Amino acid sequence: ITCRPFTRLFIGKEITMSHIPHRWHGSHQWYFVTVVTIERMSVFNDSHLCNKLKEAFRFTRKNLTFRLAALTILPDHWHGLICPSEGFTIGDVVGSIKQNFIKMKDDRANKTSCWQSRFLDHRIRNEEDFNRHVEYIRINAAKHEYVSKDVEYQWCFIHPDPFSGTYSLEKAGM
Question: Considering only 61-70, 128-137, 145-154, which range has the smallest mean pLDDT?
Fold first, then answer.
């Protein structure tokens, strides 16, 4: 892994922080991602736009193969558990989903991005880490108090078997 120094201004002088590695681009690796709207705009209070985001996931998957184990769409961000296929990076997949959503939303007068330019990712380390992130996605809407019980939230999708040989987004309710 190539590392680059992180420099920041601290009390009037520049210091070099610990080395932060570039994003790891391994094949067939699961990632937990968080994608946030600009200034935390509540874009996804509108169910029509939630459906457009689901459509962007489906369209992206036709062009860039990936697996989606879990997804929750909240008003100002979404979390996903994604595994890009060989030849694609998590940046390719997330970038394409974001771009396709902008193209698909019906606001023809406003095709500017609603997304922050970056996204957060965490490479899944093992089965326990995977299960912990699926659970985090499942309870996230209740944690933010959008619903009282996680099962009431309609914009959470958990794939019943993301490792099967016959994977499809439809099995996750997408």
Answer: 145-154
